[in-house]
Amino acid sequence: MLDPLGCGADGTPEPFAPQSAPRGLLFIYMLHRLGIKPSHGYEIMRDIEAKTGGAWRPRPGAIYPMLKKMAAAGYVECLDAGEDTDQKVYSLTPKGRLLLEKTKEKIRASGRRVDSLKGIFLEMMGEGEALGFLVDALKGHLEMIRAAYALQSGEQPGLEAQYRLREYSLLLEKELRWVKSMLRDLEDGNDQSD
Fold first, then answer.
1. 24, 85 Cβ separation under 8 angstroms
2. What is the pLDDT of residues 55-101, one digit of tens each?
3. Which residue, 133, 156, 175, 194, is most buried by CB atoms nearer than 10 A?
4. From residue 171, how far is each of 19, 165, 167, 174, 175 by CA, in Å?
């Protein structure tokens, strides 16, 4: 079993230190990216770096061996890139598409499991840090929602997108009412203590 504390050679636990990307994410993202369009390794590296604002920069020593392993397992195939280049272009195979769909379902289930642990995470952070952490996380989620909608810009947004945006609007309105109510309560409490 993987030791989440990353014990040192003497068995003493070392503090948890998040990596730049969760284990296995490179493999999953490469499946996803190659499912969108055939690409070569350099394109995938540049894409990851651009989409993470430089926070995650996989090295060629991670990308190219992964492509070879994926090809050997039958998840991707190497296409003819043409005579003018030495670069290999890879495309997702039907076996790779099936694995990608199964993986996406596992990711959705994982998200639900993490959500069910929110009380434990909040308690571990403590009341002083939890609110700030969650407000910062919310900013990221709001940006992700806009980005998810923007992905549909090449397509005509359908009824599902309309439904989701209405649902989102109702959630935001409900939260705004709650926040305003809490702010009024806090302001009233401050006025009474003066």
1. no
2. 888 899 999 999 999 999 999 999 876 666 678 899 999 999 999 99
3. 133
4. 33, 10, 6, 5, 6
